[in-house]
Amino acid sequence: MRDTNEAVIVIDVQNDFCPGGALAVEGGDLIVPGINALMSEFSAVILTQDWHPGDHSSFASQHDGLNPFELTQMPYGPQVLWPDHCVQGTDGAAFHSDLTTDRADLVIRKGFRPAIDSYSAFFENDQTTPTGLEGYLRTRGLTKLTMVGLATDFCVNYSAVDAAKLGFEVTVIEDLCRAIDLDGSLAAATEAMQTAGVVID
Ligand code: VGL
Ligand code: ZN
């Protein structure tokens, strides 16, 4: 078992990010067995769940004339527009059926505010609205974080960089992540994580 100050954070292993889903990440389902095995090493297990209202502003469907994967300007900065995905209560928003969710101490949902997207498990995309995860980790004395899940270049990256900036010791296990890789986003994410001091294992 890992030390009691260690937590594993499993990012967005949901049907919509797996093959057949609305925002499928290639091979997204292949990481599930390895994540299940990893979770059993930790006494603290946290899952994140992308959880959008049906009219979420990150959906291209809410922007006349714009298409999925195009960039738009939000009050908080540039935002990629996505196909409708992880709509609250739908099968697409559910965890992959093979993921061992019983081991989770906490499921933290994000992206539920219609006007702000949230890639990071710590802060929404305005980079100021907190999700509450920092407080949860600090009050439990969890200082060392291992992150895995989907997608490497968006939610894993933003979560890992925010955690490192907040002073947590962060490792991302690359083999247990898969990327969307939009216009070089995977290379940019790898660079951002390394710059922030995240260990990529
Ligand atoms: C994600 C795009 C939109 C992710 C979530 O989990 O990486 N990417 N919503
Ligand atoms: Zn989303």
List keywords for this structure.
six-stranded parallel sheet, 201 residues, binds pyrazine-2-carboxylic acid, two-stranded antiparallel ribbon, Isochorismatase-like_sf, 20% helix, binds zinc ion, hydrolase, alpha/beta, 22% strand, Nicotinamidase
Written description of the protein model:
This protein has helices at 32-39, 133-139, 152-165, 185-196, and strands at 6-11, 45-50, 71-74, 77-80, 106-110, 144-150, 169-178, 199-200. It is an alpha/beta fold. Strand 3 and strand 4 form a beta hairpin. Pyrazine-2-carboxylic acid binds at residues 12, 17, 50, 82, 119, 150-151, 154-155.
The N- and C-terminal alpha carbons lie at a distance of 19 Å
Can you count the helices? 4
**What composes the largest sheet?**
6 strands, parallel
Principal-axes geometry comes out as: globular
Ions and ligands: pyrazine-2-carboxylic acid, zinc ion
Portion in strands: 15-25%
Helix fraction by DSSP (H/I, runs of at least 4):
10-25%
Average pLDDT: 98
Q: Radius of gyration, Cα only, in angstroms?
A: 16 Å
Kindly report the oligomeric state of this protein: single chain
Strand order in space, largest sheet: 5-2-1-6-7-8
The helix/strand class is alpha/beta
DSSP, total strands: 8
Residue windows where pLDDT falls under 50 for at least 5 positions: none
